[in-house]
Amino acid sequence: MHVILIPGFWLDASSWSVVTEALENAGHVARSLTLPGLESVDADRSGIGLADHVAAVVQEIDAAGQPVVLVGHSGGSAIAHAAADARPHAVARVIHVDAGPLGDGDAINDQLPAVGDDVPLPPWDLFDDEDLVDLDDQLRADFRARAIPQPRGVAQDPQVLRDERRFDVPTTIVACEFPSSMLLGLVAHGHPAVAELARMRDVQYVDLPTGHWPQMTRPHDLARLVVEAVDAT
């Protein structure tokens, strides 16, 4: 299977290194992306929006020439969902890591502090306690050293979805900060935060209790779960 991995905010392709190695060892083709504006701290992020990141993933889907699995972490999850909307016939599964499908018209996170065209990694006290579980001082230092500002437009632009065939794309939710039982409860009660997820017709939930960055705090466990989801596709 051809697997395309989409980083969350402030991260480049290298953030998936443990997962890509596990996928390749399992016989899959893994392609981890560095999205536009995330090439370096000094990259030009002016004018880069959510549509540009979605287009970069769609280009990779088209280049694969076969059905793909998309893996998206955090903000990358919204990008994966939009790419599946653009190419529903070519996406065999979307794996959302500590995130879920973002609905039409919603922004990934328009509350993050921006500096010009950049959204830098905020101070840790801006995050909820659940975000930071298992992210010890060394991991925090490593993360901050490698963090690249996110293009402001990617965080603030509204999601654009057009094809209801996206609801038929098999979906896996890797639940980290909050257990899958909580997510299922929100879906059952019609909570607006999971409105798009509630419309997905084939959803598998797996739990990986940790904070918001399991590729840092529990990388090998995350890799195992991703490989299992890809193998089952």
Automatic annotation (TrEMBL):
Pfam families: Abhydrolase_6 (PF12697). Keywords: Hydrolase. Residues 3-224 form the AB hydrolase-1 domain. The keyword Hydrolase applies. The keyword Protease does not apply. One of its GO terms (molecular function) is hydrolase activity. This is Alpha/beta hydrolase family protein.
